[in-house]
Request: fold
Amino acid sequence: MKLLVGSIIIMFFVTLLGCDTEKKNPIEGTWELVSTKHTIGDSTLFEGSQKDIRMIKIITKTHFAFLNQNVDRPKFTQMGNDAETLLAARTFGAGGGTYKLDGDTYTENIQFMLTPNFVGLSIPFKVKIENNQLIQTGVLPIKSSGLGDQDVELYEVYKRIE
Reply:
């Protein structure tokens, strides 16, 4: 009888361990942008820590979303004021969609974006995790989306916040 009970307990634990065979994707989570470098050709547009802008990126098993805003956004004095609404739009950004991770290539399939020129694009980036940081590099297709003469090279460092 003891042998039967012991065998059942062992089979139970082996079954439990076998149930969680799906490995969690290492980039899943909530990330906050801590530094960035944006360049066009030999010119650096921006480099440094994010003091004036706060940005988070949320990556689930199948989707991503990002939100960013200026830290010191002025409050509205009244609803419906066009100038204040325009300023609010210029100091806030968002986007999201699905993604695919294949090795270190992370491709965002843009379904939602404040800038409509990006909707429908698939943008590949290289990603790596180092010391609880997500490093994302790649090219933002400014030229092919009709927003400028040259693409922007991105180097972004995020820290995991969840």
About this structure: The first helix runs from residue 2 to 19. Residues 3-18 have pLDDT under 50 and may be disordered. The chain has two helices and nine strands.
